[in-house]
UniProtKB/TrEMBL annotation:
Signal peptide: none
Gene3D superfamilies the record matches: 3.40.50.2300
Name listed for the protein in its UniProt record: Response regulator
Taxon lineage: Bacteria, Pseudomonadati, Bacteroidota, Chitinophagia, Chitinophagales
Organism: Chitinophaga filiformis (Myxococcus filiformis)
Modified residues (4-aspartylphosphate): 56
Length: 130
């Protein structure tokens, strides 16, 4: 059975980190898009329905945590991994607001892979017919 290509949206304003995440997830049956602001993410979500979003908390035009509830309301099945390096309290708030997982910067390749794999497995269980 051929696995379907999944859309992954990275909302992150640090170019180096985006490139790194892209490299780490490349070749895993994922079509990766990247935007650097909440505004651009909003435009993208009007056109596309990603399986997974990696959402940074501190963005040039606001906080990812605030955008999270909008994403979850409009795309309830989309999995969201919140990423933050500065805010220790952000993890609890992100999970309360609907994030499916939280990665604290800096995170390892293994942590990223494990989290992404786990969330997309859950999606498979929901979408595949029994």
């Amino acid at each position: 059975m051929k696995t379907k290509t999944r859309k992954v949206l990275i909302i992150e304003d640090e170019g180096d980190l985006c490139l790194l995440i892209n490299i780490l997830l490349e070749g895993k049956g994922m079509e990766i898009e990247h935007v650097q602001s909440i505004a651009k993410a909003g435009e993208y979500l009007l056109q596309e329905k990603p399986s997974l979003i990696l959402l940074d908390n501190r963005l040039p035009d606001g906080f990812g945590i605030d955008f999270l509830s909008i994403v979850k309301k409009e795309h309830p099945t989309t999995k969201v991994i919140m990423i933050s390096g500065v805010d220790a309290a952000a993890e609890d708030v992100a999970l309360e607001n609907g994030a499916d997982a939280f990665l604290k910067k800096p995170f390892t390749k293994a942590q990223l892979h494990e989290t992404v794999t786990e969330l997309l497995k859950t999606e498979d269980a929901i979408t595949s017919p029994s």
